[in-house]
Design goal:
The structure holds two protein chains of two kinds. Chain A is mainly beta. Chain A is 0% helix and 36% strand. Chain A has no helices and two strands. Chain A is rod-shaped, with a radius of gyration of 10 Å. The relative contact order of chain A is 0.26. Chain B is globular and about 55 Å long. In chain B, helix 1 runs antiparallel to helix 2. Chain B is mainly beta. Classes of the chains: A mainly beta, B mainly beta. At the A-B interface, strand 1 and strand 2 of A face strand 10 and strand 20 of B. Strand 1 of chain A pairs antiparallel with strand 20 of chain B.
Chain lengths: 14, 259
Protein backbone atom coordinates (compact mmCIF):
# COMPACT_ATOMS: atom_id res chain seq x y z
CA UNK A 1 0.00 0.00 0.00
CA UNK A 2 1.51 3.32 -1.09
CA UNK A 3 0.42 6.31 0.95
CA UNK A 4 0.68 10.02 0.21
CA UNK A 5 2.66 11.74 2.95
CA UNK A 6 1.89 15.22 4.27
CA UNK A 7 4.50 17.97 3.93
CA UNK A 8 3.85 19.00 7.54
CA UNK A 9 5.15 15.65 8.76
CA UNK A 10 8.60 16.55 7.41
CA UNK A 11 8.91 20.22 8.34
CA UNK A 12 8.21 21.58 11.81
CA UNK A 13 6.39 24.81 12.57
CA UNK A 14 9.05 27.53 12.69
CA UNK B 1 6.29 52.32 4.04
CA UNK B 2 6.88 49.44 1.65
CA UNK B 3 7.63 50.12 -2.00
CA UNK B 4 9.12 47.68 -4.49
CA UNK B 5 9.64 48.65 -8.11
CA UNK B 6 10.06 45.60 -10.37
CA UNK B 7 11.44 46.23 -13.82
CA UNK B 8 9.50 43.39 -15.43
CA UNK B 9 5.87 42.92 -14.53
CA UNK B 10 5.98 39.72 -16.62
CA UNK B 11 8.09 38.06 -13.91
CA UNK B 12 5.49 38.75 -11.23
CA UNK B 13 2.72 37.67 -13.61
CA UNK B 14 4.45 34.34 -14.25
CA UNK B 15 5.03 33.75 -10.54
CA UNK B 16 1.40 34.35 -9.63
CA UNK B 17 0.09 32.33 -12.60
CA UNK B 18 2.20 29.37 -11.48
CA UNK B 19 0.94 29.56 -7.88
CA UNK B 20 -2.72 30.54 -8.02
CA UNK B 21 -4.23 27.16 -8.85
CA UNK B 22 -2.64 25.27 -5.95
CA UNK B 23 -2.34 28.10 -3.46
CA UNK B 24 -5.43 30.28 -3.10
CA UNK B 25 -4.43 32.85 -0.48
CA UNK B 26 -0.88 33.62 0.58
CA UNK B 27 1.11 35.95 2.77
CA UNK B 28 3.86 38.02 1.18
CA UNK B 29 6.38 38.67 3.95
CA UNK B 30 8.28 41.86 3.18
CA UNK B 31 11.47 42.94 4.93
CA UNK B 32 14.52 45.00 4.05
CA UNK B 33 16.15 41.89 2.57
CA UNK B 34 13.30 41.21 0.16
CA UNK B 35 9.99 39.47 -0.32
CA UNK B 36 9.28 35.87 0.66
CA UNK B 37 6.14 33.80 0.36
CA UNK B 38 5.55 30.38 1.87
CA UNK B 39 2.29 28.50 1.49
CA UNK B 40 0.88 24.99 1.68
CA UNK B 41 -1.79 23.63 -0.66
CA UNK B 42 -5.17 22.79 0.91
CA UNK B 43 -4.30 19.09 1.23
CA UNK B 44 -0.97 19.89 2.97
CA UNK B 45 0.98 17.74 0.53
CA UNK B 46 2.85 20.50 -1.32
CA UNK B 47 4.54 23.71 -0.20
CA UNK B 48 5.84 26.66 -2.19
CA UNK B 49 8.61 29.04 -1.18
CA UNK B 50 9.31 32.18 -3.16
CA UNK B 51 12.31 34.42 -2.53
CA UNK B 52 12.82 37.76 -4.28
CA UNK B 53 15.96 39.45 -2.94
CA UNK B 54 15.90 43.22 -2.58
CA UNK B 55 19.55 43.61 -3.60
CA UNK B 56 19.13 41.87 -6.96
CA UNK B 57 18.94 43.79 -10.20
CA UNK B 58 15.30 42.93 -10.89
CA UNK B 59 14.23 45.63 -8.43
CA UNK B 60 14.92 49.17 -9.56
CA UNK B 61 13.92 50.54 -6.15
CA UNK B 62 13.20 48.72 -2.97
CA UNK B 63 12.22 50.18 0.37
CA UNK B 64 10.79 48.43 3.42
CA UNK B 65 10.89 50.49 6.62
CA UNK B 66 9.47 47.75 8.84
CA UNK B 67 8.59 44.10 8.35
CA UNK B 68 5.07 43.70 7.03
CA UNK B 69 2.88 40.80 5.93
CA UNK B 70 0.61 41.28 2.95
CA UNK B 71 -2.17 38.68 2.84
CA UNK B 72 -3.39 38.39 -0.73
CA UNK B 73 -5.86 36.30 -2.69
CA UNK B 74 -3.68 35.08 -5.57
CA UNK B 75 -6.64 34.77 -7.97
CA UNK B 76 -7.40 38.45 -7.47
CA UNK B 77 -3.72 39.37 -7.81
CA UNK B 78 -3.60 37.44 -11.08
CA UNK B 79 -6.57 39.43 -12.41
CA UNK B 80 -4.90 42.72 -11.44
CA UNK B 81 -1.61 41.70 -13.06
CA UNK B 82 -3.45 40.89 -16.30
CA UNK B 83 -4.11 44.64 -16.47
CA UNK B 84 -0.36 45.27 -16.84
CA UNK B 85 1.53 45.11 -20.11
CA UNK B 86 4.37 42.56 -20.15
CA UNK B 87 6.96 45.31 -20.51
CA UNK B 88 5.43 47.53 -17.83
CA UNK B 89 7.37 48.41 -14.73
CA UNK B 90 5.30 47.41 -11.69
CA UNK B 91 5.47 49.10 -8.32
CA UNK B 92 3.99 47.45 -5.23
CA UNK B 93 3.21 49.86 -2.41
CA UNK B 94 1.78 49.50 1.11
CA UNK B 95 1.74 51.47 4.33
CA UNK B 96 3.39 50.23 7.53
CA UNK B 97 0.11 48.86 8.90
CA UNK B 98 -1.56 48.10 5.62
CA UNK B 99 -5.14 47.30 4.71
CA UNK B 100 -4.49 47.85 1.05
CA UNK B 101 -1.85 46.86 -1.49
CA UNK B 102 -1.37 49.24 -4.40
CA UNK B 103 -0.15 48.20 -7.84
CA UNK B 104 1.18 50.86 -10.19
CA UNK B 105 1.91 49.91 -13.79
CA UNK B 106 4.11 52.25 -15.83
CA UNK B 107 4.34 51.61 -19.55
CA UNK B 108 7.82 51.62 -21.07
CA UNK B 109 7.53 55.06 -22.63
CA UNK B 110 5.74 56.43 -19.53
CA UNK B 111 2.68 57.46 -21.55
CA UNK B 112 0.31 55.29 -19.52
CA UNK B 113 0.21 54.92 -15.76
CA UNK B 114 -2.42 52.72 -14.13
CA UNK B 115 -3.07 52.21 -10.45
CA UNK B 116 -5.04 49.46 -8.74
CA UNK B 117 -5.73 48.91 -5.04
CA UNK B 118 -6.70 45.58 -3.54
CA UNK B 119 -7.89 44.85 -0.03
CA UNK B 120 -5.54 42.74 2.05
CA UNK B 121 -6.66 39.67 3.98
CA UNK B 122 -5.83 38.27 7.41
CA UNK B 123 -4.44 34.86 6.57
CA UNK B 124 -3.79 32.58 9.47
CA UNK B 125 -0.99 30.31 8.35
CA UNK B 126 1.85 28.67 10.20
CA UNK B 127 5.31 29.08 8.74
CA UNK B 128 7.20 25.82 8.52
CA UNK B 129 10.93 25.71 9.11
CA UNK B 130 12.63 24.22 6.08
CA UNK B 131 16.04 22.90 7.10
CA UNK B 132 19.07 23.38 4.87
CA UNK B 133 20.06 19.86 4.00
CA UNK B 134 22.39 18.11 1.61
CA UNK B 135 20.37 16.07 -0.81
CA UNK B 136 21.40 12.61 -2.04
CA UNK B 137 20.85 13.66 -5.62
CA UNK B 138 20.42 16.94 -7.52
CA UNK B 139 19.25 16.79 -11.13
CA UNK B 140 19.50 19.89 -13.30
CA UNK B 141 17.62 19.77 -16.58
CA UNK B 142 15.85 22.02 -19.09
CA UNK B 143 12.56 23.15 -17.53
CA UNK B 144 10.59 22.42 -20.72
CA UNK B 145 11.96 18.85 -20.68
CA UNK B 146 10.67 18.32 -17.14
CA UNK B 147 7.29 19.79 -18.13
CA UNK B 148 7.07 17.44 -21.09
CA UNK B 149 7.96 14.38 -18.98
CA UNK B 150 5.31 15.21 -16.34
CA UNK B 151 2.70 15.90 -18.99
CA UNK B 152 3.45 12.72 -20.96
CA UNK B 153 3.51 10.39 -17.97
CA UNK B 154 0.37 11.86 -16.38
CA UNK B 155 -1.64 10.37 -19.27
CA UNK B 156 -1.02 6.87 -17.94
CA UNK B 157 -1.05 7.11 -14.17
CA UNK B 158 -1.23 9.19 -11.02
CA UNK B 159 2.29 8.82 -9.72
CA UNK B 160 5.77 8.87 -11.13
CA UNK B 161 8.73 7.00 -9.76
CA UNK B 162 11.93 9.01 -10.09
CA UNK B 163 15.01 6.85 -10.08
CA UNK B 164 18.36 8.67 -9.84
CA UNK B 165 21.48 6.64 -10.45
CA UNK B 166 24.95 7.29 -11.73
CA UNK B 167 24.09 7.01 -15.42
CA UNK B 168 21.22 9.48 -15.24
CA UNK B 169 17.63 9.67 -14.13
CA UNK B 170 14.59 7.54 -14.99
CA UNK B 171 10.97 8.60 -14.75
CA UNK B 172 8.46 5.75 -14.69
CA UNK B 173 4.71 5.50 -14.53
CA UNK B 174 2.59 2.37 -14.14
CA UNK B 175 -1.16 2.69 -14.49
CA UNK B 176 -4.06 0.29 -14.89
CA UNK B 177 -4.08 0.65 -18.66
CA UNK B 178 -0.39 0.78 -19.37
CA UNK B 179 3.02 1.95 -18.30
CA UNK B 180 5.71 4.30 -19.49
CA UNK B 181 9.35 5.10 -18.83
CA UNK B 182 11.59 7.99 -19.84
CA UNK B 183 15.33 7.72 -19.39
CA UNK B 184 17.47 10.84 -19.30
CA UNK B 185 21.20 10.45 -19.61
CA UNK B 186 23.66 13.03 -18.40
CA UNK B 187 24.69 15.19 -21.33
CA UNK B 188 28.18 16.49 -21.74
CA UNK B 189 28.25 17.34 -25.42
CA UNK B 190 25.47 19.94 -25.50
CA UNK B 191 26.65 23.46 -26.35
CA UNK B 192 24.22 25.47 -24.30
CA UNK B 193 24.34 25.08 -20.54
CA UNK B 194 20.56 25.41 -20.24
CA UNK B 195 20.08 22.37 -22.50
CA UNK B 196 22.23 20.09 -20.36
CA UNK B 197 21.08 17.36 -18.03
CA UNK B 198 23.40 16.95 -15.05
CA UNK B 199 23.07 14.58 -12.11
CA UNK B 200 25.03 15.23 -8.93
CA UNK B 201 24.80 11.96 -7.07
CA UNK B 202 25.88 11.15 -3.53
CA UNK B 203 23.53 8.21 -3.17
CA UNK B 204 21.01 6.64 -5.55
CA UNK B 205 17.36 7.54 -4.84
CA UNK B 206 14.13 5.86 -5.95
CA UNK B 207 11.02 7.72 -4.89
CA UNK B 208 7.39 8.10 -6.02
CA UNK B 209 5.46 11.37 -6.25
CA UNK B 210 1.97 12.45 -7.27
CA UNK B 211 2.01 13.68 -10.88
CA UNK B 212 -0.93 16.01 -10.25
CA UNK B 213 1.33 18.24 -8.14
CA UNK B 214 4.42 17.98 -10.33
CA UNK B 215 2.31 18.99 -13.36
CA UNK B 216 0.99 21.96 -11.38
CA UNK B 217 4.55 23.02 -10.49
CA UNK B 218 5.52 23.03 -14.17
CA UNK B 219 3.27 26.05 -14.68
CA UNK B 220 6.40 27.90 -13.53
CA UNK B 221 8.33 26.65 -16.61
CA UNK B 222 8.38 30.04 -18.33
CA UNK B 223 10.18 31.58 -15.32
CA UNK B 224 13.39 29.70 -16.02
CA UNK B 225 15.24 27.75 -18.73
CA UNK B 226 16.34 25.18 -16.17
CA UNK B 227 14.84 23.36 -13.21
CA UNK B 228 16.64 21.66 -10.32
CA UNK B 229 15.21 18.54 -8.69
CA UNK B 230 16.73 17.75 -5.29
CA UNK B 231 15.97 14.34 -3.84
CA UNK B 232 16.73 12.29 -0.75
CA UNK B 233 15.07 8.94 0.00
CA UNK B 234 11.82 9.24 1.99
CA UNK B 235 11.84 13.06 2.10
CA UNK B 236 10.09 15.74 0.01
CA UNK B 237 11.48 16.52 -3.43
CA UNK B 238 12.44 20.13 -4.10
CA UNK B 239 11.57 21.48 -7.55
CA UNK B 240 13.42 24.77 -7.95
CA UNK B 241 12.99 27.37 -10.68
CA UNK B 242 15.72 30.05 -10.49
CA UNK B 243 14.37 33.52 -11.31
CA UNK B 244 17.03 35.61 -13.04
CA UNK B 245 17.84 38.90 -11.31
CA UNK B 246 15.44 38.12 -8.46
CA UNK B 247 15.89 34.82 -6.61
CA UNK B 248 13.96 31.59 -6.94
CA UNK B 249 10.65 29.77 -6.67
CA UNK B 250 10.78 26.39 -4.96
CA UNK B 251 8.10 23.74 -4.61
CA UNK B 252 8.33 20.96 -2.04
CA UNK B 253 6.30 17.80 -2.56
CA UNK B 254 5.88 15.06 0.06
CA UNK B 255 6.63 11.59 -1.31
CA UNK B 256 4.40 8.60 -1.62
CA UNK B 257 5.76 6.00 0.76
CA UNK B 258 5.06 2.29 1.27
CA UNK B 259 2.95 2.00 4.42
Amino acid sequence: MIGQQKISSFFRVA
Amino acid sequence: MFEAKMLQSSVLKKIIESLKDLFADANFDCSSSGITLQDMDSSHVALCYLKLRSDEEGFEDYRCDRNITLGVNLGLMSKILKCAGNDDVVTLRAEDEPNILTFIFDSKNSERVSKYDIKLMEIDSELLGIPDTDYSCVVKMPSHEFQRICSNLSQLGDSVTIDCHKEGVDFKVAGEQGSGAIKLKQTTSVDKEEDQVTVQLNEPVTQSFALKFLCAFTKATSLSDTVNLSLTQDTPVVVEYPIAQHGYLRFYLAPKIEE
